[in-house]
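Thread: sanity check for a docking pose with S-adenosylmethionine

Original post by kr_44:
Hi all, I'm comparing my docking run against an independent structure prediction. Below are the sequence and the ligand SMILES. Could someone generate the full complex and paste the C-alpha cells? I mainly care about where the ligand ends up relative to the chain.
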Amino acid sequence: MSHISVLLHETIDALLAGRTEGIYIDATFGRGGHTQALLNRLSANSRVIAFDKDPQAQAVGAELMQQDARLTMVHASFAELTVQLAQLGTGLVDGVMADLGVSSPQLDQAGRGFSFMQDGPLDMRMDNSKGLTARQWLQDIEEEDLANVLFQYGEERYSRRIARAIKQAGLIETTGQLAQIVKEAHPKWEKHKHPATRSFQAIRIAINHELDDLTNFLPQAVQALKPQGRLAVISFHSLEDRLVKQFIQQQSTLPEQGWLPQPEPDPRTIKKVARIAPSPAEVSENPRARSAWLRVAERLEHA
Ligand SMILES: C[S@@+](CC[C@H](N)C(=O)[O-])C[C@H]1O[C@@H](n2cnc3c(N)ncnc32)[C@H](O)[C@@H]1O
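Reply from moderator J.T.:
Ran it for you. Here is the predicted complex with S-adenosylmethionine included:
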C-alpha cells in the first residue's frame, strides 16, 4: 500500500534551487513522499501546503500535520489552488509542485476500482466522497461519446468497437467485468500491455476531469509564485506532458511579431528551466517511473 515517489530528489532540488526556507505547495500529496522530502530540507520557519482530493491521502496528511506544524493539508482539487490559498491567507509562494496521476495505494486497493488486475467495484474516483463512479458514468454516457473518450484520453485505436461492446453489456458492476469486456472486444493486443490498459486510463481521466484540472491548475500555479519561484510538474503520459509542455512554451516565449516591435509590457511570465527523465536505475527499481517526465519553470522577475 506504500507509494514509491518518482523523481524525488530531482524534483525537490529543482523546486528549492538552493533555498532552504520559504512556502511551498505540494499539489498532489499522495502518501507524502515529496512533501516529507521537502520538509526534511526546509528550515523551522518554512511551510508546506499540501493538496489531495483523495480522502485517504488527506487522512495521511492530517496525521503528518500533527507531527509537523509546518505542514497544512488541504482536501481539495489543485484546480482550486487560488481560492484555497486565499482562504488560508497565504501570500505568494516560493515553489509549486505536482506529481500527477494516481498513487500506488489507489491502484492497489481493489475497493477503489481503478485496477484491471484485481476485481473490485467499478469506481475509479480519486475523490470518492463525491461525483459519479465509473459504473454510473458508463451507464449514462452515449456510445459515440464513450468512443471519443477512449480515443482521445486512451489513444485507443479500437475505440468504436470497444465502446459498442461496453454499451451492449449493460450495467457493469466490477473492474473485472469491464476488463473482460474490453479484452474480448479488442482485436489486437499490444505486447506487455493488458488490452484494457488504454480504456481504463481513458475512463479514469474522464471521470476525474484530470486534463481539465491540470489546464486550470497551471496558470494558477504560476500566479501563486514569487519572482524566481519555481514550478515543477511530473507527468506520466503524453496527454498530460503535452499540456505542461505547451503551457510552459506559451508562457515563456514572445509572440511571433514579424517586423513589429515586441509587445509592452513583456507578456512572458516564466522561463524554462529543465526537462528531466528518471535515471535508468530509478526505472529498473520502479517501473512506474518509466513514462515520467519532470518539467521545471521559473517565474520571471517582472511578471
Ligand atoms: C502520483 S500520486 C502523488 C504521490 C506523492 N508525490 C508521493 O510521493 O507520495 C498523485 C496524487 O495526486 C492526487 N490528485 C490527482 N489529481 C488531483 C487533483 N486534481 N487535485 C488534488 N489531488 C489530485 C491523487 O489523488 C494522488 O493521491
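The chain has two domains: 8-104+210-299, 128-207. Hope that helps with the comparison, let us know if your pose agrees.
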